[in-house]
Amino acid sequence: MSELSEKTWESLLGVLDPNPDRAGEKYEHIRRALLRFFRNRQCLHPEELTDETIDRAARRISEGVSIETANIANYFLGIARFVVKESWKGRPSDSALEDLRPDQQPRVDPKAIQRGELEREDTETGTRCLTECIEQCFPHNRDLLVKYYASERREKIDARSAMCRELGITLNTLRIRMCRMRQKLESCVRECVAA
Amino acid sequence: LDEVKNRHEKIVAYLLGTLDEEGQDRVEKEYFSTPDALQEIDSVEEDLFDAYAANSLQGDEKSRFEERFLSDAAGVERLRFARSLLRWARTNPVVESQSLFSFLFFWRPEPFAVAAQEAEDIRALPSDTSTSEIAVTVPPTGIVVMECDVTSIPEITIFELTLLTTDSAELWRSGQLKPNTAGSRKFLSAYLSADTLKPGLFVLAVIGITSEGRREIFRRSLLVQVSVL
Predict the structure, then answer these.
(1) Which residues of B are less than 8 Å from A189 in CB distance?
(2) B38 to A32: CB separation less than 8 angstroms, yes or no
């Protein structure tokens, strides 16, 4: 997060929600939404632009600018749209690889590196970490992961529909729940491999 | 189902950069408005990683995916994770004996007058997802103690139990419950008046309250057949 004064920060949280815990949750949601927005617009530095957007919104709020929107998050979205346009203006124009002089050409082929990365087999550590993390994070939901991820193509749709019927939830709820499980698992595996 | 499919396709188009400006605006407004909509975008993005890992993306979709998601180390790492997860899931069979539902019913003739260990166990039928009915016989009056195993939902710390008709009308709802623990087992205990349980078919639902304060159904029994002594 960028350096906001305590007063500015408090004004921002106060506008988000009078309850500090809920305000914190709303702030996290807005931050994640901004990152998603800038990444989807293919910005080079989404974290910086997210901070810039939050800074601007917070300063305006602390200056007493009235917000004419029922949903405060949309106010941030409006600012983000300006910020992204500004970032495009300041960005040097792209050059095709073929147009670069020989001394400007990259020394390695990034696509070859990418292919190598993709073709590299998972390390033993990665596989061990995945198994350990599943046991650690979801000792009783292991079968849910198997059912959700094991099937392919048409079978996948049938298998997931059956899971929805069994659990009494909609497909969307199932997908969101599995997404949360996966994010937790991915973070556990990342930490395990790094350790 | 068609509606879900259309929505999924719209989000895929957004993520791959092929949605028109108006469509983009709509998707963005949605995910700025609610955490669930943002989580939905995350989940569709993961589906795309899975589809690429399973070689299901073709042509323009495939090249757009590579361009937008595999141009940095983080994206390549996510793809590697997706491939590992798919491989793991396809080489690990489901252990069918594990039960998702486990409802236990006890009856005590007088509210709170009898210690739990002396309670008469009328029926203790575990139910898994393939079982269509849990049969329960209750006294005409008194208190029914309902227990529900939530060991497999570690991420939720506050729950509610509800009793619904088969038309999803709510008949009864517990207050907010924190799980009790016994060894590694976590379970909820709730009390309801036997009068609430008329003869007939009901549905029991376990509702978890997420850290964001949202209520989500985590489990639902298929049917509970109640008869009265």
Answers:
(1) 81, 84
(2) yes
Of the listed ranges B20-29, B49-58, B133-142, B191-200, the least confidently predicted one is B133-142
CA angle, B145 then B147 then B153, to 5°: 155
DSSP B51: H
| Coil, helix or strand at residue B49 | helix
Residue B189 pairs with which residues in a beta bridge? B147
- Measured in angstroms, the CA of A26 and the nearest CA of chain B are apart by 9
CA-CA-CA-CA dihedral for B152, B155, B161, B167, to nearest 10: -80
Maximum pairwise Cα distance, chain A: 62
Asked if the Cβ–Cβ distance from A147 to B4 is below 8 Å, we say no
The neighbouring-strand residues paired with B103 are: B148
Q: Which of B35, B84, B89 sits opposite A145 (nearest CB)?
A: B89
CA proximity to A179, closest of A136, A154, A145, A133: A145
Chain B residues in contact with A31 (beta carbon < 8 A):
none
CB atoms within 10 A of CB B11: 23
For position B184, what pLDDT does the model report?
67
Cβ contact A180–B152 (<8 Å): no
In chain B, the DSSP E strands lie at: 101-108, 120-123, 126-127, 134-138, 143-149, 158-165, 170-173, 180-182, 185-193, 200-209, 215-220, 224-228
Asked if B40 has any chain A CB less than 8 Å from its own CB, the reply is: yes
* Chain A residues touching B152 at Cβ < 8 A: 138-141
Q: Does B113 touch chain A (CB under 8 A)?
A: no
Nearest to B84 among A127, A138, A178 (CB): A127
Which pLDDT tens digit goes with each residue over B129-182?
Answer: 333 345 555 555 666 667 677 776 777 888 888 887 777 788 888 888 888 776
In A63-139, which residue ranges form alpha helices assigned H by DSSP? 72-89, 110-119, 124-137
**Residue B49 token pair:** 């990683």
pTM summary value: 0.64
